[in-house]
Design goal:
2 domains; alpha/beta; 53% helix; seven-stranded mixed sheet; binds manganese (II) ion; binds guanosine-5'-diphosphate-alpha-D-mannose; Spore Coat Polysaccharide Biosynthesis Protein SpsA, Chain A
């Protein structure tokens, strides 16, 4: 017996037998339901999940696709072990990438079933609901069934006050996007048709955790939603990955969606680089002044230094996927300087207009700065980093 087998308890062994007793020789049924599970460090939960699904699904032909981001605890290896025992499980192991939402999209794109469910790996979602979710999809005109903690019969389980408040606030913010006809847009447990994923896939942000909200807002025609109650369970094994970054990513997602893509995470990065440029500008100005340089000269040099700094840093970070090199770098630099000069003009005219309407210099100053940031970003994206031709396949 191998190491894994010898470490199993007697209940695990009976599970292993029931998994292994599936007929592996004959043709396997095409699953009607593909269950997609994102996982990161969930080694201890995989076997529990597969066992629970095997019990819950009854005669429904299903498959489980675990999308694991190369977990350090080797969750992917555990998935392969369970699959080798005959369970209808596949593993997509992504190397060098992270993210719940993008993992779900990748799993859904690999799904064979007509229907796709999304469920966490950590047993916090009630898998016994899946069959009813499938029935609802098949027997009503709903496009998507959401397992909700906020309809009668649902609940949050053992959450502390802080987490409850955070979730309520996040739900409240999502109302800006989708109104209030969905009780639990933060849910990570839902089922839809594979075709719905195919329709929205190009319009998804894929940022962060909130894939359901992403799908609901990306769909061109409003999706018909059905909701079924469930109670969020405690974690069986391991720990939650919710951290400050997940909250920040949610904020980025909201900003992107609210602005209809005008303020993508890239814009936020561009603005952060701009803020850093301002610090460099003031530092240069201070140093030159201390050497007795006249203000106008010092200000001119500081502007050039800050602009060059912004160009180089944006080239390395914000636009790293289109990084300019060689002649393109030099040409791009001059165009960037021209764009920023126009941006400064836009800044001045908007600030001037604002101060004449509202007698508040902080408001006018901020309006001008925002104007130049939006202008510099959109024009640079197109004319500095968007000029390089895409490679086109050679004609045959
Ligand atoms: N592939 C991949 N990559 N999976 C991830 C990643 C990642 O970067 N981060 C988290 N996951 C997996 C976890 O392993 C787990 O299976 C699932 O995504 C949810 O992560 P948790 O860290 O357990 O989330 P949670 O319990 O705090 O949040 C839950 O509640 C939210 C509602 O408040 C999840 O169910 C969310 O989906 C849900 O929106
Ligand atoms: Mn969880």
């Amino acid at each position: 017996m191998n190491e894994v087998g010898s470490a199993l308890t007697s209940t695990d062994k009976s599970t292993q037998q029931s998994l292994a007793s599936r007929d592996r020789s004959g043709p396997t049924l095409r699953p009607i339901l593909s269950i997609v599970t994102p996982s990161y460090n969930e080694r201890g939960n995989i076997r529990l999940l597969v066992t629970a699904l095997t019990q819950a699904m009854g005669p429904v032909a299903w498959e489980l696709i675990v999308v694991d981001d190369d977990s350090p605890d080797e969750t992917w290896r555990e998935v392969l072990n369970v699959a080798a025992e005959g369970a209808p499980v596949r593993c997509i192991r992504r190397v060098g990438r992270r993210g719940l939402a993008s993992a779900v999209v990748e799993g859904a794109m690999a799904a064979q079933g007509e229907y796709v469910a999304v469920i966490d790996a950590d047993m916090q979602h009630d898998e016994t609901l899946l069959v009813r979710m499938l029935d609802t999809l098949q027997q009503s005109d709903a496009d998507i069934v959401i397992a909700s903690r906020h309809v009668k019969g649902g609940g949050l389980g053992e959450w502390n006050e802080g987490r409850k408040r955070l979730s309520a606030f996040a739900t409240h913010c999502s109302r800006l996007l989708i109104g209030d006809n969905v009780s639990d847009p933060m849910s990570g447990f839902f089922m839809t048709r594979r075709a719905v994923f195919d329709n929205v896939v190009y319009d998804l942000s894929q940022q962060g955790y909130k894939i359901l909200l992403d799908i609901l807002t990306a769909s061109r025609k409003p999706l018909k939603v059905a909701e079924l109650p469930y109670v969020f369970r405690d974690r069986a094994e391991g720990e939650s990955k919710l951290d400050v970054m997940v909250v920040a990513e949610y904020a980025f997602l909201l900003v992107e969606k609210l602005s209809h893509g005008l303020l993508p995470p890239r814009f936020i990065l561009f603005s952060l680089v701009g803020g850093l440029g301002l610090v460099i500008h003031l530092a240069t100005l201070g140093i030159l002044k201390s050497f007795g340089e006249s203000f106008l000269q010092a200000q001119t040099i500081a502007t050039l230094v800050a602009m060059s700094f912004n160009f180089v840093l944006n080239n390395m970070t914000t636009y790293r996927s289109q990084r300019l090199r060689g002649w393109n770098f030099i040409l791009g630099y001059f165009i960037f300087c021209a764009v920023c000069s126009l941006g400064a003009l836009a800044n001045l005219s908007v600030a001037n207009l604002a101060i004449s309407q509202v007698n508040s210099w902080p408001f006018a100053g901020a309006a001008g700065a925002l104007m130049s940031a939006v202008f510099n970003f959109s024009v640079s994206t197109k004319f500095v980093w968007g000029r390089t031709k895409k490679r086109t396949p050679k004609a045959a």
